[in-house]
Design a protein that fits this description.
heterodimer; A: mainly alpha; globular; B: Porin; 2 domains; 10-stranded antiparallel sheet
Chain lengths: 217, 220
């Protein structure tokens, strides 16, 4: 049931991108030439929508992945008192370096897929990361200096590499090339850029992580 | 009522940070011209590099040793003029001392000043240092649940580097730096599921001196 609700949420969210999609043919075109050259000015309406979509995703992901921690450690009091008490966290490097870089990578790739320039994508990744640290994760823990810095900065470095590698693999135009391309940059599955009218939404379970893949005929 | 006011106050802090960063970001668009090793462009720039480090550990007079390892760093800087920038940096380094893995994260603020293609960077900040026991806890932690120690203290450093430009326009740099870490607090950490718990906290008087040799690129 929870998987279904989450999938429905993502489906609605992704379908909204088509509503807000502009003609980007001048700055990169649609998927087969997926190469989102950044626009100098992204309209404010789109900035708000993109940031809001990412923020909604962050809440959904947090509720879904941290259910046990929320039950044990979470409280409304934490949520409103923790933002003023940032500190160096005690996590191990598998969280602080690898997992946070991976999340930051998705922030960056998401904004790139919305035709932000590299610097703009980095800036908005930073804002999304701050929003998570100061207004979401505070329900269970204080904001972490390492996460505030490393999530968007390391994520951007990984994201730049992921995007280039994904574009290269897609350009091979083979099934394994496309598979690797989608794995490295799942944002190429967002309907606006999707190849052959295909899209996917993530499935997150404690036991499994996967995706619904949809093909439109 | 009080929680609601507190919540609004905290949200305002976030909105203030948001607006300040947006202002810096907006200014960034004003000054786009090509970055060169001998003429920096204004605005936000990110340097990424990696390399080797050698660290001398003087740990509370219990042991003194030298270790070698890998490290990588990122310097997120706002370049005010073609010579001067302020930076927020992270330098992550790993060393192995016998069976222990030592992981440092140096989060620092610094200045960057250019002289021709060369630059200097004084910086200071804080550096959590984590020592993983890897199943071999020291005698004083045997019988406890602790799986690692986390040290905390200030870090001071200085770096000298040189930037180059390849024919295809890629900007890269070499850099050597030195840091001094003063570890002042020691906490034993136990993992309760995914949540780290501090099970003891003591003062510490260890010192780490490191030298680094790094190579990297300007990402943007």
């Amino acid at each position: 049931m929870r998987s279904f609700v989450l999938a429905l949420f993502f489906s609605l969210l992704l379908s909204c991108f088509n509503v807000f999609a502009n003609d980007h043919s001048k700055d990169g075109g649609t998927f087969p030439d997926y190469n989102p050259e950044g626009r100098i000015i992204v309209p404010v309406k789109e900035k708000i929508f993109n940031f809001g979509a990412m923020y909604a995703f962050q809440w959904a992901f947090y509720f879904y992945s941290q259910e046990d921690t929320l039950r044990k450690e979470g409280s409304v009091k934490n949520w409103y008192t923790n933002p003023l008490r940032p500190r160096f966290d005690k996590d191990s490097f598998d969280y602080n370096i690898f997992k946070h870089s991976l999340i930051g990578n998705y922030y960056y790739l998401f904004y790139r897929s919305r035709h932000y320039s590299e610097k703009d994508a980095f800036f908005w990744s930073f804002m999304s990361s701050l929003a998570f640290e100061f207004t979401i994760e505070t329900a269970t823990e204080k904001p972490s200096y390492q996460d505030i810095y490393q999530t968007p900065v390391f994520g951007t470095v990984v994201g730049i590499g992921s995007e280039k590698a994904s574009n290269y693999f897609h350009s091979l135009n083979t099934w394994y090339g496309h598979t690797l391309g989608y794995l490295l940059n799942p944002m190429t599955l967002i309907p606006q850029f999707a190849r052959e009218k295909m899209a996917a939404v993530p499935i997150l379970n404690r036991e499994t992580i996967g995706a619904f893949v949809m093909v439109r005929f | 009522m009080a929680p609601l006011l507190w919540c609004v106050f905290n949200m305002n802090i976030y909105i203030l940070i948001f607006l300040c960063l947006n202002f810096v970001h907006a200014k960034n668009h004003d000054d786009e011209y090509k970055f060169r090793p001998d003429y920096w462009s204004k605005g936000l720039h990110l340097n990424v590099g990696g390399g080797l480090n050698s660290t001398y550990y003087d740990a509370d007079e219990r042991f003194k040793t030298v270790a070698f390892g890998l490290n990588f760093k990122t310097d997120l800087g706002y370049y005010f003029t073609n010579r001067f920038a302020i930076e927020w940096s992270s330098n992550v380094k790993f060393n192995r001392i016998s069976e222990y893995l030592v992981w440092d994260t140096l989060i620092t603020f610094g200045l960057r000043y250019r002289m021709k293609e060369y630059y200097v960077r004084p910086f200071l900040g804080k550096a959590p240092t984590v020592v993983f026991f890897n199943g071999h806890p020291p005698a004083e932690y045997k019988g406890t649940k602790a799986s690692r120690l986390q040290f905390d203290g200030p870090v001071y450093g200085f770096a000298v580097g040189k930037m180059f430009e390849r024919k295809d326009g890629l900007l890269w740099f070499i850099e050597t730096s030195a840091t001094l870490q003063s570890l002042q607090e020691r906490e034993a950490i136990h993992m309760d599921g995914d949540v780290p718990k501090v099970i003891s906290r003591e003062t510490d008087q260890s010192t780490l001196v490191s030298v680094y040799f790094m190579i990297g690129v300007l990402i943007f």
